[in-house]
Design brief:
- The protein is of the alpha/beta class.
- Helices cover 35% and strands 23% of the residues.
- The chain has 18 helices and 24 strands.
- Helix 8 (274-284) packs across helix 12 (396-412), helix 12 (396-412) runs antiparallel to helix 13 (416-433) and helix 13 runs parallel beside helix 18 (558-576).
- The structure holds fructose -6-phosphate (F6R).
- Fructose -6-phosphate binds at residues 295-298, 342-344, 347, 350, 393-394, 469, 473, 591.
Length: 594
């Protein structure tokens, strides 16, 4: 949901090419507009417009701007259409202050009305513009940039990470945050601000994580962080172990397909967390109930967690959508472990739920981004080792989340057999990826469809939901995941001649019942694409097409492997339809608004 960047170079060189490079790495956070502001010769230069970065750069040449410090923004519109006027940076009427902002200012209308009555003139429909006017107003009253920002955050309500520059205080960027992410990078050639680390990996590895309400002041000499009483805060400096290459396409056409191909590594690396997971289990002690809380793909990983925890460890487990969590808060107690699953660690719905859970229960975050808000607020953290994920559709972070959940369940239930099976998963994933040509061919056969159904039972039910979500979010084809046994209770009415039904049917206890469901849809004319064992001759005879998986992949670990062809199908159908799988419309990678 929007990305911001700021940079001040130690030497007097043009910063625009670096700002452009950094903000381009955050395009997954918003891609309806882009804008840069730099400072030179006593004035603020701004280039901004609606459109993807590449389009705007082509018409405005964003890299060609004078000035050795500045700020930049990619937008995911919330208040006001994507347009040049609504694109950030925003300025006051005299162009003395420029601001970039990620988040939502909830009380902006009241503030705007008051500022208009004082004579301020607004140009955009955004909530952000009030920030520029407020800072200017306070600077006019005699406050310096830092204190004008502090006064401003005393007035605005909502979520924000913001950075501001002023013509009255050259060579300085002031930034702050509340409920939206912001990191500060200490690089060799300068100092950086960003919403997320991929933006600055190339330039800075040493990172400071500002807390809510702290004010960050960066100039050519370094970074100072002040608390609300103007005291200097001595922040820890943490080093990121991700490399810049990890956030590049490295020869792949899209991040999504690169990340699908990195899944074996993501699983392998996440399995190295075993000792950490065991320590957490030992420390947590007696737990009588587990609640998983998450959104979207992370919610589907959580559903698999329920099946594992209940069947292996016998611990009653609920899975609650983060946005609905507060309605269950009355049932929590200190014997409940609330597990938050999130690739970004910044999802607003999950953070709100975490604040609720922290009041009564022990909390554990399973998160991919180090230093993100969930990692700082949960009692315990397992960091999934997927590396940076840039494609908006979660793929490798999903299998890494699953891997952490499997580790947790296997260690809680002391299930060595499952631990051994997990070690084989990376090879199963790589083997499955070799069938890519066949999946491409199938994608050509199925891209006609307007609707898809995905069916699975038990462990394969969350896989069905996740397969359907992947398809709908990037190809814009309607995909519906169902528990296979539930179809006949209503949705079967929708099954028609030729409608594609993807059936996830690994060998195991649920095989026969799932096969009956497959036959139910087949006999009503569905075009059945089954994902099952390579050796399953009877499946080949019944389905219209089968993607074969190694027969050793049994039901219990199937979620980690059977999702791979479903991701590939979604990806290749999306290409067939001419859409960009990395940047689906209306979506952003990190959802920092409720
Ligand atoms: C779908 C997808 C989203 C996220 C959801 C939660 O591919 O990525 O559904 O899973 O927005 O995000 P995180 O995991 O960052 O909390």
């Amino acid at each position: 949901m929007c990305g911001i960047v700021g940079c001040i170079l130690k030497e007097n060189e043009d910063v625009a090419p670096i700002l452009f490079d950094c903000i381009s790495k955050l395009e997954y956070r918003g891609y309806d507009s882009i804008g840069l502001a730099t400072f030179s010769d006593g004035k603020i230069n701004i280039k901004k417009d609606k459109g993807k970065i590449i389009e705007v750069d082509k018409s405005l040449d964003l890299k060609d701007m004078p000035g050795s410090f500045g700020i930049a923004h990619v937008r995911w519109a919330t208040h006001g259409d994507p347009s040049k006027l609504n694109a950030h940076p925003h300025v006051d009427e005299d162009n003395t202050v420029a601001v970039v902002h990620n988040g939502i200012i909830e009380n902006y209308l009241e503030i705007k009305e008051e500022l208009i009555s004082e004579g301020h003139v607004f140009k955009s429909d955004t909530d952000t513009e009030v920030i520029a006017h407020l800072i200017e107003k306070f600077m006019d009253e005699g406050f310096d940039l830092e204190h004008a920002v502090r006064k401003t955050i005393g007035i605005i309500e909502g979520a924000y990470a913001l950075a501001a520059i002023s013509i009255n205080e050259p060579d300085k960027i002031v930034a702050t945050r509340k409920d939206s992410p912001l990191i500060v990078g200490l690089g060799e050639n300068g100092y950086y601000l960003a919403s997320d680390s991929p933006a600055i990996l190339k330039y800075a590895k040493d990172i400071i994580y500002p807390e809510k309400g702290e004010i960050v002041i960066i100039d050519r000499d370094g970074v100072v962080v002040h608390d609300e009483f103007d005291n200097v805060v001595n922040k820890d400096i943490e080093t990121i172990n991700w490399t810049p290459e990890m956030a590049e396409k490295e020869g792949y056409d899209h991040f999504m397909i690169k990340e699908i191909n990195e899944q074996a590594t993501a699983v392998r690396n996440t399995l190295t967390q075993r000792e950490n997971v065991q320590e957490i289990i030992d420390d947590i002690g007696d737990i009588q109930r587990i609640c998983f809380v998450a959104c979207g793909t992370s919610y589907h990983a959580s559903l698999t967690g329920k099946y594992l925890m209940e069947s292996l460890a016998g611990i009653p487990t609920d899975v609650i959508l983060a946005s609905e969590f507060k309605y269950s808060a009355n049932t929590l107690n200190d014997k409940t472990l609330v597990i938050f699953i999130s690739q970004s660690g910044e999802t607003a719905d999950s953070l709100k739920a975490l604040d609720v859970a922290n009041q009564t229960s022990k909390t554990l975050g399973i998160v991919n981004v180090a230093g993100s808000a969930i990692t700082r607020r949960a009692d315990y953290v397992i960091q999934t080792q997927a590396g940076p994920e840039i494609g908006v559709a979660a793929t490798k972070t999903y299998v890494a989340q699953l891997t952490s959940i499997y580790l947790l369940a296997a260690l809680v239930s002391e299930n060595d057999e499952l631990l051994n099976e997990l070690d084989m998963v990376p090879d199963f994933i790589d083997e499955t990826l070799k069938d890519v040509d066949y999946v491409m061919e199938l994608s050509k056969r199925y891209n006609y469809a307007r609707d898809f159904f995905y069916l699975g039972r038990g462990y394969s039910y969350p896989t069905a939901l996740e397969g359907a979500l992947k398809l709908k979010e990037i190809s814009y084809i309607h995909g519906e995941g169902y528990a296979a046994g539930e179809l006949k209770h209503g949705p079967l009415a929708l099954i028609d001649e030729g409608i594609p039904v993807v059936v996830i049917i690994p060998p195991g206890d649920n095989y026969r019942k799932t096969m009956s469901n497959l036959e139910e849809v087949k006999s009503r004319g569905a075009n059945v694409l089954a994902i099952g064992s390579k050796d399953d001759e009877s499946l080949k005879a019944k389905a219209n097409a089968v993607i074969g998986i190694n027969p050793e992949v049994k039901e219990i670990i199937a979620p980690l492997v059977y999702i791979v062809p479903l991701q590939l199908i979604a990806y290749y159908i999306t290409l067939e339809k001419g859409h960009d799988p990395d940047k689906p419309k209306n979506l952003a990678k990190c959802v920092t608004v409720e």
